[in-house]
Amino acid sequence: MKRSKVAALLATTEIDREVLVKGWVRTKRGNKFVSFIALNDGSTINNIQLVADAEKFSEDSLREVTTGACIAASGILVASQGKGQTVEIQVNNIEVLGAADPEKYPLQKKGHSLEFLREIAHLRPRTNTFGAVLRMRHAMAFAVHKYFNDHGFYYVHTPIITGSDAEGAGQMFQVTTLDPANPPKTETGEVDYTEDFFGKQTNLTVSGQLEGEVAAMALGQIYTFGPTFRAENSNTTRHLAEFWMIEPEMAFADLTDNMDSAEEFLKFLVMYALNNCKDDLQFLNDMYDKELLNRLNFVVQNSFQRLEYTEAIEILKSAKQKFEFPVEWGTDLQSEHERYLVEKHFKKPVILINYPKHIKAFYMKQNEDGKTVRAMDVLFPGIGEIIGGSQREENYEKLAQRIQEMGIHEEELWWYLELRKFGTAPHAGYGLGFERLMLFVTGMGNIRDVIPFPRFPKSAEF
RNA sequence: UCCUCCUUAGCUCAGUUGGUUAGAGCACAUGACUGUUAAUCAUGGGGUCCUUGGUUCAAGCCCAAGAGGGGGAGCCA
């Protein structure tokens, strides 16, 4: 007989038939006459109840059916006699596929702290919480591809190993096959990277944007969705050393098009979660964050507040609240400033644009005022910056000059500059941190709990 | 990296002014119970009080250093 998934059985109206289920035991309870086994197979957060009568199953035969054990069970799917579920399985046969010593199995019926579960990342997907998070992670990844495919964007695979260190987005992980204890040296005593695998120094990517622009200047609209690496010594609830980033890039788009795209995209993703992850969202709402569903609904129903950086500075300066860091035009906004704007002043997502050029990246399009660039940050409640983007500088001379001013190695960016030399066009794009999106849609408080195997300083255990 | 808090049973935590035998709930084991819903009830086993050093007649508790973890900040997505 073919295995049925628990999700399908709980949704079916065809009862009084024989079924086979396989999954992991969550709890067993009962008395000497009957045992009730709650079984979960990951297809849904809900369990199916197996009913094992003592006539068919001796106490001994159920000895290995304990919390955490993996079993296959066959029997008749029937309308439940008890309350709390509509159907259950009157079991005829149980096979223990893998026992789990109840003295040693770390997961129990009752709740565990998220900190403890982080130490057993190989078992935490079997909890309600991580089952919900991982199913939602899949749903969100699928929704990303669906949105862009439906809107005429092409998925482009940008390289994970990069020879450019000019992206300026933080510390990078080096990729090398040289012997770390005894690397080849040049005459001046420095490591000779011409002997390395690629003949030059290489690193793991911190962004696919520059290569994404290459593709956008041929295919029109593209997006990347891949792993991204930052070797910063960041120890926060919002940073990982290895995370996934989505970077759309659009030819013939300006900053307004960019804002429109980012807002529509985020709303689509949240709407997709609301429509397709109901059970998991309800669980997370009940267990972790009673405002989660309200907040998600609010985001899809209200337009984001669009605001000039200069206006934001004025709002912050006239705010009654005292800030730890002083506010002055030309300084970057601190977390406390972003939180004030989003959570206190506007009480909705905010898109901040036109930042001072000296606090933003070299590739952003310069405004006529000579002071600001067409940058855009989307700020979300509780998370801060969820998207960062800009219109790109498409003028060769202005871009080359900016590269010089900022002391970036021009020779490594020759191909990026040539995009402006041959058939240049206005274009814009942005980057969405996938795990920050996951924080928002799940209501989880720590980014280490929305990725199956988190990578952060001093931690790569699993 | 900085600030701050925490570390006691498998898990979550209590532990008074430093005082003699370190507790609870859950989990686990045994038993009871004719349909349970994180089942319930009874009984029982279970401890490197993070590590090292110090103060003291006496340290889970006070002091110092270290390790691990949480939260906040910086950097950013």
TrEMBL record:
Ranges that cross the membrane: none
Keywords from the UniProt entry: Aminoacyl-tRNA synthetase, ATP-binding, Cytoplasm, Ligase, Nucleotide-binding, Protein biosynthesis
Residues in Aminoacyl-transfer RNA synthetases class-II family profile domain copies: 134-452
Broad class of enzyme this protein falls into: ligase
Name of the protein this chain belongs to: Asparagine--tRNA ligase
Assembly with partners or alone: Homodimer.
Assigned GO CC terms: cytoplasm
